[in-house]
Design goal:
There is one protein chain. The protein is of the alpha/beta class and 488 residues long. It is 44% helix and 14% strand. The chain has helices at residues 7-11, 20-33, 49-58, 73-79, 106-115, 141-144, 150-156, 170-173, 189-193, 196-200, 236-241, 254-264, 269-274, 279-294, 306-326, 343-347, 354-359, 361-380, 397-404, 417-425, 430-437, 444-457, 475-487; strands at residues 63-66, 87-91, 121-125, 130-134, 146-148, 166-168, 177-182, 204-206, 209-211, 217-223, 244-247, 275-276, 332-333, 409-412, 461-465, 469-474. The N and C termini lie far apart (91 Å).
Length: 488
Amino acid sequence: MELPQTLGELKQTSYKSKTIKEELRDNLVKKLINKETIFENIIGFEDTVLPDIERAVLARHNILLLGLRGQAKTRIARLLVGLLNEYIPVVKGSELNDDPLQPISRFAIDKIKNEGDDTPIEWVHRSERYVEKLATPDVSVADLVGDVDPIKAANLKLPYSDERVIHFGLIPRAHRAIFVINELPDLQARIQVALFNMLQEGDIQIRGFKLRLPLDIQFVFTANPEDYTNRGSIITPLKDRIESQILTHYPKTVEISRKITQQEAELLPDQQSKVVVPEILENLIEEIAFEARVSELIDEKSGVSARMSISAYEMLVATAERRCLINSEASTVARFTDLWGIIPAITGKVELVYEGEQEGPYMVALALINGAIQRMFLDYFPDPEKLKKGQEKDPYGTIKSFFAGGNTIEMFNDDSNEKYEKALLKVAGLKKVTEKLVHTENQLLTSMELLLNGLATFNVINKDMLESGITYRDLLANMLDDTDLLDD
């Protein structure tokens, strides 16, 4: 169907003007009735955040999304575009997306007055009706609202008192669109004040001009909770004018977190064909993020973004892929020794408190990994600290005896698949205990490695980190070595 190209042709159709909030509401109602998916690829918010968003849209509210970094706030805002009509008509040449039936700018009003039904119109796609601005301390009123343009005044030979010399900012240009301001607390208080009338009255003030522009905008703001950030705050009068405040959150379970990581991780087909990541390691990547969110070494006010898990997963695959290429192997399975390749993904995604800074980013990353390993170990194996003599047979006795006999195991980061398997099978009792306690198919070697690492976190055996790998040996032998060093 050919779209009308003039105001007269538009009047002959069934088109009726709607506010953007009415448009969003009407389209949401249709999707809810038809049981259609509204927010694609948003995982973990099905029973919490998304229903709140839908209620806010039905109530025709402006929205404030409060949450720590990496909680999909901006993505949700961008997905609201899917609730807009595919195309809307605007007066051709209008800076403010003027509705041909309800123009608000001087340009559009004059054009329709002069040309009547012959006024040309054009159609704007919904993808062009989204404006996003990151709030930073240097954002000015001119950026958001507008300013007097001396060049325009000179070219049109108009005095500065004429409203036609105004250069409109981002917000007026977002008329009939969704306007998003990310990290609202970072916006200076005087700039936040400039948003008051726009939200409440629909008028704007620019250097003495007070224009009655009934702007039609769906505002969406994002911010860290005020109590969690020291960079700034949302001033109370502005917050009071934002009708719906919705709290986002991190994934509540490892399973949900893993689904997000699998969805968002960007792996090449070549990587996917070469590297298999066992479920144990997929879960462990998420456990590291959960460990970081409760760690005393990490600043909880900053949060630990889901992007940390995504980056760590990509680095884990890349580490295994590199090893595979070095050994000229067709494929490989990711290992615990590959975890040390994800440390750069961790250190770059967390903010440390004072104690963490004293430890250093590298040591904090190792502590998080070991904490996650210990938690996962207890999901598969008995707690070594709870095994009581005489009451329950210690399933780790053969393994401890193996290391107590002076045996050591060296596992290097770049070992071939054959050397890796040979090293694990060398440990007496390791395979037998793992087969008995873990019933996960195709993950025997990974489970054996989890058992060794878990025993090390409980100080049953010793694990020495080398630049190129790991050495496992008896804990007492390690203590004796330390004593010898002191004697020297």
